[in-house]
What does this fold into?
Amino acid sequence: PPERKRFYQNVSISQGEGGFEINLDHRKLKTPQAKLFTVPSEALAIAVATEWDSQKDTIKFYTMHLTTLCNTALDNPTQRNKMQLIRAAVKFLETDTVCYRVEEPAALAELQKNEWDPVVTWAEERYNVAIGSSTSILGPNIPASTKETFVSHLASYNMWALQGIEYVITQLKSLILSMGLIDRHITVEKAVLLSRLEEEYQIQRWGNVEWAHDYDLCELRARAAAGTLFVHLCSESSTVKHKLLQD
It folds into this structure.
């Protein structure tokens, strides 16, 4: 359901046999498939607990992106294994937003070149691959070696982090922008702007629908930020150093 009346007062975390759990008063949080909601790191548990604690009179599930990602990782509704997740992520290269260029209007073509070329160049140097771009409707011809390099790189992530990576890619419609964001090469605001470059160009030229544009922009930023945070929290140590919490 999109919303539900808040039924708990306090939110806490505890460590169980399988990881860190979320407690709503004295109830253990469960996934949609009724599995015990258990996450691999304390930092992620704290972040999820914060989402639940931030809900007011009603629980707005559509605002709880970290909780949703955890549910997906735990329930795995599509029943995919690690290699299937990786292949699905790498397949986005074939239709990557920053690889598709226009020839007209000239102003947009120039904008794409100025804004997208630097991040493509960064990715080529960072991963030692060839990517390129194309004005053809078929898109660029991505070498098989490039795809395999990204497959090998993504294989270094665990299943939880891969769920987050695919989520970010789906939001930005770009593997290249997503890796730039996850590698901390670009900010969330920059990644979202680059993913919406043509739309932003049209808005600057023709104006925007009042409130709708701002809502879409903020929502995309929230999703991209949550997905990136999820990847980082799933890739780090399982416990938070308590000295840092005390400081």
